[in-house]
Amino acid sequence: MLLLLIVKITGISLFTVSRFIQPVMAFMIILSFSYVAERLYGGLTGFLTGVFSISSLFFLRMLYPIPESLAVIILPLTVYGYCRSMDPDSGAFPIITGFFLGLMMLTHPLSASITLAVILISTGVLWVSGRGINGRNVIIIMGTGFLLSAAWYLPLIIKYGFIFRSPDSVPLNLKDYPAYFGSLLTVLAATGFAFAITRRDKRDIIMLVWALFVLLLSFGYLLGLKVLSNRILYFALFPVATMAGTVFNSMKIRNKRWLVYLMVFLLTFFFLSGGYKVAASAKPMVSETELDVSRWFKYNGDHVTVVASDYHIQPAIVAVSRQPVSAGGYAPGSGRTINVNKYIGTFNYTGEDIKRDRVGYIILAHDTRTPPYSRMVYRNRDFVVYRVLISGT
After folding, report:
1. Are residues 246 and 381 in the same domain?
2. Are β-strands 374-379 and 306-308 bridged in parallel, bridged antiparallel, or unpaired?
């Protein structure tokens, strides 16, 4: 919605706006990470949290102009607001935190669910460990968040019911976990968590709960849960980077603090160099031939009937041309989808199938035979577009 709003206001193409938004999104995420870490553990930790986050492989994900990136900007602010809401003089923090939680629910439900779990589990751990909690403020946070999100979700649930189609699991081997964060960052974070266990401050408990919960959730496939392990692990980046940064807060070398700052300077150069390499490795998710197909639909498609194709090309088609596609939208929340394999794989479909599914176009690889009831209307190096001859409208 943000991208479309900017497109409408400026008249600039969607992909130009997306390229502009990419560094802005990444900057805002790093700024949010650094700000919250600074508020919790001081300026040096805040600075290092941003630097460490840039060096991880997850920095690539920060560059994507997607709803998840907006939610990840809000996520640390929400947890920080919860931490402050546990104080006796919390002021307006519970309302503001609940507002942030509601925004996440509206923007990216997975981020909101993880945040809500961290809040609830942290509350339980703080209560069991004898730390002060403010149950009234926790209720205010959740109530405000659910009330804000209900304005959008409640009418949809009443009309369509609750719809969620979980994607297939993509497990991550345990030995690959350090690779996503970086080996040095993993060692520093483990040291920081060890110090946090000895301190056991309220903020330390929340960071420990956050990291441990996300780590265990990423192994959910072992219990039969459908999880994308690397996507889930992304949400542990903030506590991992923050705990790594805390290592240097009270460190002294030969009883001299300036040697620590020299080490920080060298580490900053090392991690920023790694971050530059990560960013430089980014490749466009949409190929030129996919864009060519999308532009063809913009000027030649009927914008009514459905395109049956491989899922990968469909977001570009929808974004550029607004032509309906067979996936029916974002897969987990799609109300209705089409068995696309019979149109692009087996060709085992009938005229009645075409009319029921309202299929008007089929996209195949250029070396595939012509599907039934269709004729070729466009081709490029990688794709062939066929117009279905039986009306799907």
Report:
1. no
2. unpaired
Say yes or no: 72 and 189 in one domain: yes
d(CA 298, CA 338): 22
Q: Which amino acid appears at position 338 of this protein?
A: I
Phi-psi label, residue 281: left if phi above 0, alpha if psi -120 to 50, beta otherwise: alpha
Which residue has better confidence, 351 or 311? 351
In a domain? residue 393: no
- When pLDDT is averaged across residues 215-225 and rounded to a whole number, the result is 85
In a domain, 192, yes or no: yes
Residues 304 and 232 in one domain: no
Q: How far apart are CA 101 and CA 136, in angstroms?
A: 16
307 is written with which tokens? 């395109």
Region class of 29: left (phi > 0), else alpha (psi between -120 and 50), else beta: alpha
Range of the domain at 319: 288-388
Query: Helix, strand, coil shares of the chain as percentages rounded to 5?
Result: 65, 5, 25
> Quick one: pLDDT at residue 5?
63
pLDDT confidence of residue 165: 62
Q: Report how many domains make up the chain.
A: 2
Q: pLDDT class for 120, splitting at 50, 70, 90?
A: very high
CA distance 27 to 72: 12
- Which percentage of the chain shows pLDDT scores above 70? 88
CA 190 to CA 196: how far, in whole Å?
10
Q: Both 58 and 191 in a single domain?
A: yes
Task: Report pLDDT for 166.
Answer: 64
For the stretch 157-185, pLDDT in tens is: 887 776 666 666 677 888 888 888 988 99
Residue 62 CA to residue 26 CA, distance in Å, equals 5
Residue 334 has pLDDT above 60, yes or no: no
Confidence of residue 387 (pLDDT cuts 50, 70, 90): very high
Q: Report residue 80 CA to chain centroid gap.
A: 19
Q: How far apart are CA 87 and CA 96, in angstroms?
A: 15
Same-domain check for residues 297 and 238: no
CA-CA distance, 326 to 331, in Å (whole number)? Answer: 10
| Same structural domain, 77 and 226 | yes
pLDDT at 378: 94
Identify whether residues 141 and 32 lie together within a single domain. Answer: yes
Predicted confidence (pLDDT) at residue 332 exceeds the cutoff of 60 = no
Residues 206 and 305 in one domain: no
Contact 133, 123 (CB under 8 A): yes
Question: DSSP label at 253?
Answer: B
